[in-house]
Amino acid sequence: MAKYIMALDQGTTSSRCILFDHTTHIASLAQREYPQYYPHPGWVEHDPMEIWSSQFAVAAEAMAQVGASAEDIAAIGITNQRETTILWDRATGKPVSNAIVWQCRRTADRIGRLSGEETAMIREKTGLIPDAYFSASKIEWILDHTDGARERAERGELAFGNVDAWLMWNLTRGRVHATDYTNACRTMLYNIHTLSWDEDLLKLFRVPASLLPEVHPSGTLFGSTDRSVLGGEIPIAGAAGDQQAALFGQCCFTPGEVKNTYGTGGFLLMHTGNEAVLSGKGLLTTMAATTDKEAPEYALEGSVFVAGSVIQWLRDEMKLIGTASESEQIADEVDDTAGVYIVPAFTGMGAPYWNPYARGTVVGLTRGCRRAHFVRAALESIAFQSMDVIRAMEEDAGTPITSLKVDGGASANNLLMKFQADLMNTVCRRPKCIETTALGAAYLAGLTVGFWKDREEIAKGWQLGREFVPDMNETLREKRLSEWKRAVRAALAYADGEQ
Ligand code: ADP
Questions:
Q1: What is the predicted pLDDT for the residue at 243?
Q2: pLDDT digits (tens, 9 = 90+) for 448-471
Q3: CA 186, CA 239: separation in Å to the nearest integer?
Q4: Among residues 112, 129, 405, 465, which one has the fewest Cβ atoms lying within 10 Å of its Cβ?
Q5: CA of 305 to the centre of ligand 1 (A)
Q6: R_g over Cα of the chain
Q7: 338 φ/ψ sector (left φ>0, alpha ψ -120 to 50, else beta)
Q8: In sequence order, what DSSP letters do the residues of 339-399 get, joined into one string?
Q9: What is the pTM of this model?
Q10: Using CA positions, which residue lies closest to atom 14 of ligand 1?
Q11: Which has the minimum average pLDDT: 125-134, 198-207, 333-342, 369-378?
């Protein structure tokens, strides 16, 4: 009987592979970074062959670490950086260009030229706020700027995929061209209500339908690996975009459950059940991961652009700390920030403010402010920004959030987690396994092939690492929240002067 589920976690800066056993214990983990290309300011590319070769290498390495053969792997689940766009030749499997990465801003002008009517249509059909971030304008760009690509696409010779589809194509040696709901819904071409590629959107972005992969639920039998790849035919039984995989890995299955991933940025997702809730607060409506045994489910998503990266900034640019984890110990030297607030709007402000001109702002400095106050204010800014998104979600959903599951690199910071609980006046729960993204992909694959029985079984296995219980009094909480709002207003007022 196969012992492991293999999770392929293809991220923006590295490819990872984790083998989970039945108790979700990590049996082996391999990771490899791969190159980033910045051909012009604001442009970001990856080489699709480097994505594949690094992902393939870590899969082989993770198997070798525990002496596993293909027969020991019950199934593969894929999770991936979302929106990143790859076009390749169906006959040769060769990419026609580099991948355009989600962060790439090259099509911002194109998106800026959409009419009000087109924007409203996109919003209604896809649940997204039009942006260069999503795949649609990236596909259009590759077709328009690669010699012969549009003609070849019209003749049906090319295939489009996000990173999940690209990996599947390579794992199956071109037998499978498919994706899942959670990736499809980030292309800005997929109708999340009718569950189909949308003809109006394909026309708007001039994308031939022949390019597109088949779309399935995240947990389904997509196909099997070709024998030549990992030495056997392993079922590929799960695929989901990283944030939806994390939501699944945190076992947020019921409406109102929320997870926050504190990585470079912050990603909050609230499960909204079978209902696609359209936001009035600038949040995105997105599909949640499901297996083929369930009806489609949805989530509300809000992001904080600068979360853990404000700590990187303290370390790398301001030189105030030596390591990210040291931020906790230094912030703990003081009881408060001495009235200092940092609004780290380095690249503008997202939900619910949506001001691209805002920039980082520090308010409340006095002569007594020292390093520890400043570091504490930076940490607190991560929680304050998350709080703004949480409030927006509560208003959209019409219900208060009663607990928050946390993960990601900066969730290791106990001071930050306690402060988040205090601000929300709600318990924050950090699981033992904070590899929730990979775990979500593993769960999807494992449920599909019967390695795990059902959601109840895996939810029972969710193990609490540490719980953060709020104890801040109401008056102080209100004071801190209203001071944060004033700090944000100061940042926005400064931005107003620039316009
Ligand atoms: P990503 O997946 O986006 O690369 P990770 O989940 O690996 O991010 O988290 C890395 C981020 O978390 C970095 O920005 C880092 O500054 C921050 N970070 C890591 N450990 C801590 C810590 N103990 N306290 C605060 N921030 C931290």
A1: 96
A2: 999 999 999 999 988 899 999 999
A3: 14
A4: 112
A5: 13
A6: 22
A7: left
A8: T-EEE--BTBB-TTT-BTT---EEE---TT--HHHHHHHHHHHHHHHHHHHHHHHHHHHTS
A9: 0.91
A10: 308
A11: 125-134
